[in-house]
Amino acid sequence: MRKQIAAANWKMNLTFQQAEKLIDDVLDANIMLSSNQLVLFAVPYPYLLMTRSDVEDEYNYEVAAQNCHHEKSGAYTGEVSAGMLHSIGVNYCIVGHSERREYFGETNTMLAEKINLCLGNKIVPVFCCGEPLAVREAGTQNNFVAKQLADSLFHLPAEIIRGLIIAYEPIWAIGTGKTATSEQAQEMHHHLRSVIARQYGTAVANEVPILYGGSVKANNAKELFGCADVDGGLVGGASLVAADFIEIIKALK
Ligand code: 13P
Question: Whose CA is nearest to atom 7 of ligand 1?
C-alpha cells in the first residue's frame, strides 16, 4: 500500500514553548502508526532540532522543513540551504508551497532547483501544486497543475519520482474554510496520478503519495482520506490544535 501521510504545516505560527507543548500533546496521544503511515511536522526553522529530538524515538513520526533555498550556499542573508537541513538530520522538506510561490516569487524553474538540492542531500521533497481560484473558475486547472509537475519534476528519472511526496493544494481552499469536495479532490488526484503515469508508467504513478491540502479539518479528514487517490493531507490551521491534528492522524487509511 502507498504511504498514507498526515503532514502538519505550522507556517509562521507558535512560540517555541507553544510548539513544544503541541508536539508533546500530539505524541502523548500514543497513536501507533502502521508501517505504511507517516506523520510529518513541518515546523519553523528554529524549532527543527527540538522537534527532531522529540520524534526521534517515535515510529514513523518525522520532522520536516517548510522551505529551503534554491542555491547550494553563498551570500543569501537569512536563507537556509538543503545542505544545512541535512546536516541537522532533517529528511523532509516542503517545496513550492503556494504561499512561497505567491509571496516570495518562487517559479517552477526555481522549484526544480530546490528539488534537485533536496534530493542531493537525501531530503524527500513534499512538492506542492495547486491552482488559484481564477484558474478553477476558467476550468483549466488540470493543465495548470500538469505544467507545475512537468516544469519542476519531470527532469527526474523514474526511480527518483517514485520516492517523492506530492501535495495538491487548491489555493482557493487554503485557510478559507472552503474545502474542496471529496469528489473534486479525488478527480484532481486521479488526474495528477495519470499525468505521472503518462510520463513514467502506471507502476511508478501508483507508488507516489498524493496529499490533499486546503482546510483539512478533524471533521472532514476521514471523508477526504477515504478517496482512492488521496493519501492523506497537508494541514495548516487544524495542525495547530493538538486535539484536531490527533483526529486527522486517526483518519489516515
Ligand atoms: P489550511 O489547512 O489552513 O487551509 O492550510 C493548508 C495549507 O496550506 C497546508 O500547507
Answer: 236
